[in-house]
Write a structure and sequence with these properties.
The chain is an alpha/beta fold and about 260 residues long. It has 7 helices and 11 strands.
């Protein structure tokens, strides 16, 4: 048994069989008696489940309870850590290679010309016709899982066609993210970042400043032409509106679409 000396204001409620007075101590002190636990008396089973968005059903919970009961009966844990509902795969195997990364030279084909009006300071943008833009390789590969007729990808293709140089893109959670990044594959042929709804602009603005600071220090090679783009939507412009406005007020060198 484990004796714990505890001061109380009124010992009357604690005069049952599990407490006793401390010898020679004032009456306002009693001792609680607890069963002494043996070292490592607790048995812990760690299980990882739900990888890839897999659902968790009542039958899975029953298996967990059965494993816990079996460990209690045995007095020890046979497998302390394991994945539940996931296949271990084959050692040495890897996903099939996708399309190679796209280079800045491949996509810098002059599809947009920008001229500044020296009088007004306004920018005048001239675009090549859409049929001409088909010469630009796609930064998003074919074979993604978007619904037929989805308007997101024609829009993205047009934007990507006129952006020259290196592009770092951040997708907030949404359809365009889901259908292009089915684990373990990706349809993106450029630097891609996924972020949740609430703080995509904060993440990308931090990435922008980190990049330029490390270039200044000489820790990263400088790109002659780099564009940081955040692809957002109703969620990112709802609960993520605050970081987006903050990024705009700070005037980071990035785009929000």
């Amino acid at each position: 048994m484990l004796a714990v000396d505890v001061p109380v204001l009124n010992p009357a409620p604690f005069t049952g069989g599990r407490v006793r007075p401390v010898a020679g101590a004032p009456p306002e002190r009693v001792v609680f008696l607890f069963p002494r636990l043996a070292p490592n008396a607790f048995k812990v089973l760690s299980r990882i489940y739900g990888l890839g968005g897999k659902d968790f059903y009542a039958a899975d919970a029953e298996q967990f309870f059965e494993q816990a009961i079996a460990a209690a009966k045995l007095g020890y844990v046979t497998e302390a850590f394991a994945y539940h509902g996931a296949t271990p795969g084959k050692p040495g195997s890897s996903p099939r290679p996708g399309l190679p990364p796209i280079t800045a030279a491949e996509v810098s084909l002059g599809m947009a010309q920008v001229h500044r009006d020296e009088t007004t300071g306004r920018l005048k943008v001239e675009l090549q016709p859409l049929w001409k833009m088909t010469e630009v390789p796609n930064r998003i590969g074919p074979g993604h899982g978007a619904c037929p007729g989805c308007g997101a990808f024609p829009t993205l293709h047009q934007i990507y066609n006129v952006l020259e140089g290196d592009v770092v893109v951040l997708f907030q959670t949404g359809c365009a993210m889901v259908v292009t990044t089915g684990y373990p594959a990706t349809a993106h042929r450029i630097n891609y970042v996924h972020n949740l709804f609430q703080n995509g602009a904060a993440t990308l603005s931090g990435l922008v400043e980190m990049y330029h600071e490390r270039v200044r220090r000489g820790e990263l090679p400088a790109s002659k032409d780099i564009t940081f783009v955040m692809i957002s939507g109703d969620g990112g412009m709802d609960i993520g509106m605050g970081p987006a406005i903050g990024a705009a007020n700070r005037n980071h060198r990035m785009m929000i679409l």
